[in-house]
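seq as requested:
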Amino acid sequence: LKDEPNGFACVSSSSSQTVDFARDMARHQAEEKRQEGPLHADHAHHICTLPRQMIWQLHDRARTRAQKRTATREIMEHMSRQGVPIDMSGTIDNVEIGHHMFSLLHITKNDTDARTAHWLILVYDDTSKSKNPCWTIDLPGGKRHLGETTFDGTTRETEEEMSLTIDKDWILKGKPMRQVGKKDDINGYYLIAPPTELLARSLTENSFWRTPGFCTDPISEVKT
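struct tokens:
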């Protein structure tokens, strides 16, 4: 694990359209899988784009309870607009930040785009009969299989949990980022984004992107 940590991926861009493109690609691939059978047991219930700063505000324990409620409602509204079945007229649901997203928030807190980046997230419905509606947001990734490299494991886990197919052309930084000296240092985090060539080819060639409800921004508006 020192040389090949477990891997996690985060589609990240200052352009929300770029992240929305990856979101819609993942949703489309998940729908195709459903035509053939059930999704992987760990697959997210929903896939959404959220501003990193909004997630950070939810995480920030220094904020007041009222501010925390505001941050939660903002995230709920974003997810609701992207198809997550949230009743915005009732009680504010609970939104929990997963461990790995928590780690990446801290790793990237001094990045130049920390306030402008948008992230692609997994959304799990963790509601049970014993508690109010609860959503957990996190990143795809997990333990490597024997013989896998960190990126091989990240690729497999991202496909299993998000239905998004990625390769090394997506990597924004060569090596996975790690929390040095922390208990989470057995994990590595890749910031990734769809390559410009893939964006251009898909938006011009695939009729899928003209489907109502999916990203329809012209290629000139999509930036990496």
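Residues 216-224 have pLDDT under 50 and may be disordered.
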